[in-house]
Write a structure and sequence with these properties.
Number of domains of chain A: 1
CATH class of chain B: Alpha Beta
Number of strands of chain A: 7
Distance between the termini of chain B: 39 Å
Number of domains of chain B: 1
CATH class of chain A: Alpha Beta
Distance between the termini of chain A: 8 Å
Strand content of chain B: 35-45%
Oligomer: heterodimer
Mean pLDDT of chain A: 97
Structural class of chain B: mainly beta
Helix content of chain A: 25-40%
Shape of chain A: globular
CATH architecture of chain B: Roll
Number of helices of chain B: 1
Order of helices and strands of chain A: HEHEHEHEHEEEH
Low-confidence stretches of chain A: none
Strand content of chain A: 15-25%
CATH superfamily of chain A: NAD(P)-binding Rossmann-like Domain
CATH topology of chain B: Ubiquitin-like (UB roll)
Structural class of chain A: alpha/beta
Largest sheet of chain A: 7 strands, mixed
Radius of gyration of chain B: 12 Å
Chain lengths: 194, 67
């Protein structure tokens, strides 16, 4: 597909981004730049200075809700994109409600509990909808351990083992690698029948 | 019996085993897991009643904090 055909094919696509921190902000920006026409963002946090080491935000946005700041950043690149910014802590009913019309859902949460919640909700409520999850991105180096695993409509990207701990913090490059691999897989899913 | 566990063949000595026992047997230590048997999601509270038999396809996924 040439570039124009890709842009046209992506314009009508809807992608849900569950969590707008390190994974979600980087993944959403990559998808918007490529031409995905409609993004549904959900997050309940405000931007803190500690987030700036890996999240796609700027210092003058500190204190803003991440979904609002991310919407602005997307519109600075792609003013035509439709961006829904939902300030809320997702739970099973709101996952079902907000993401019902999405072609693909990106799991971009921080905590293991939230990851489990959305994966179980999507597998049971939307068994035919692809969900792309990030699992294992802490620290630095070890590029070759970051892989994609597929299980029916559930895709898991990451090293599959490195949890965030005090001695293994999340850092910009490895988080953004996983986020951009999530975005790259989303494109593959959105464009596969074209 | 022989099952598929995370896409790998595994020989289990018992004729059948409950899913929560299989998780203990294989030493899956992460706090939070998502489990599927033959393509179907099995939630945590159903693992004790879910019996794994010869030929079953079992997936145990670790939930790993960070994002």
């Amino acid at each position: 597909m040439n570039y124009q055909d890709i842009r046209i094919a992506l314009k009508d696509k809807v992608v849900g981004i569950a969590g707008c921190g390190g994974l979600g902000s980087n993944c959403a920006m990559a998808l918007a730049r490529t031409g995905v026409g409609h993004l549904v963002l959900a997050d309940h946090d405000k931007l803190e200075v500690a987030n700036l080491n890996r999240q796609y935000f700027f210092r003058d946005q500190l204190g803003e809700y991440k979904v609002a700041a991310l919407k602005n950043n997307i519109h600075r690149v792609e003013p035509e994109a439709i961006v829904e910014a939902h300030i809320l802590k997702l739970d099973p009913p709101s996952v079902k409600d907000l993401f019902a019309d999405c072609d693909v859902i990106v799991e971009a949460f921080d905590t293991d509990h939230a990851k489990q919640m959305i994966i179980e909700t999507v597998l049971s409520e939307f068994p035919d909808k692809p969900i792309v999850s990030g699992q294992g991105l802490a620290g630095y180096g070890d590029n070759e351990s970051i892989i994609t695993r597929r299980l029916d409509n559930l895709y898991i990207i990451g090293d599959g083992e490195r949890e965030v701990t005090e001695d293994q913090p999340p850092l910009g490059p490895r988080v953004a690698v996983v986020a951009n691999m999530q975005a790259n897989l989303v494109l593959e899913l959105l464009l596969k029948d074209k | 019996m022989e099952i598929s566990l995370n896409n790998r063949k595994e020989i289990i000595e018992q004729e059948e085993i409950k899913l929560d026992e299989l998780i203990t047997l294989k030493n899956y230590t992460f706090r939070l897991l998502v489990t599927k048997v033959n393509g179907k999601l099995i939630r945590k509270d159903a693992r004790a009643e879910t019996i794994i038999r010869d030929g079953d396809d079992v997936h145990v996924l670790h939930m790993i904090s960070g994002g």
